[in-house]
Amino acid sequence: MARFLAANMGELADHDAIESAMAFAQQPVFTVSPRLKIGLAWQNVSSGNLRILDKNGGLNNTSTYVGLAPQRKLGVVILVNRGKQHATGIGRQILHALAQDQSQPSTEGEPEQDED
């Protein structure tokens, strides 16, 4: 997953074709709100001065999050062995903390959480 994040941030040597494909998938093609745009594979979320590209997912027994702040060269992967966990919110909080960005992480694009 670290190499996947590196490729998405243009950090792999001699992998121009894959990095071009990754950059293309990151480009917003649909605007949900002023702070949330959707690309071919990524959510493009703005909060304060930080732009985060992320993808969340999961099943009944897993919760997942991959997020990166490309302008800061930061990335986070969260894999949880339980479903319906707050991986997206936690991932965005981690990216904000690592970037030392004091703005509140956006909740836009987070999966709905069932009340237990």
Fold blueprint:
Elements: H1 2-8, H2 16-26, E1 28-33, E2 36-39, E3 43-47, E4 50-59, E5 62-69, E6 74-80, H3 87-98
Antiparallel strand pairs: 1-2, 2-3, 3-4, 4-5, 5-6
Structure notes:
The protein has 116 residues and is of the alpha+beta class. It is globular, with a radius of gyration of 14 Å. The model has no long low-confidence stretch (mean pLDDT 92). The chain has a 6-stranded antiparallel sheet, sandwiched between helices. Strand 4 and strand 5 form a beta hairpin. It is 26% helix and 34% strand. The protein has helices at residues 2-8, 16-26, 87-98; strands at residues 28-33, 36-39, 43-47, 50-59, 62-69, 74-80.
In short:
This protein is α+β, with helices and mostly antiparallel strands and 116 residues long. The protein has helices at residues 2-8, 16-26, 87-98, and strands at 28-33, 36-39, 43-47, 50-59, 62-69, 74-80.
What characteristics describe this protein?
116 residues; alpha+beta; 6-stranded antiparallel sheet; 3 helices; 26% helix; 34% strand; globular
Overall, the morphology is globular
Widest sheet: strand ordering = 1-2-3-4-5-6
Low-pLDDT residue intervals, each spanning 5 or more residues? none
Q: Give the helix level as a range of percent.
A: 25-40%
Major sheet characteristics? 6 strands, antiparallel
> What is the terminal-to-terminal distance?
31 Å
Secondary-structure-based class equals alpha+beta
Question: For the residues shown, what is the average pLDDT?
Answer: 92
- SSE run: HHEEEEEEH
**Percent of residues in β-strands:** 25-35%
**Total of DSSP H or I helical runs spanning 4+ residues:** 3
Radius of gyration: 14 Å
Number of strands: 6
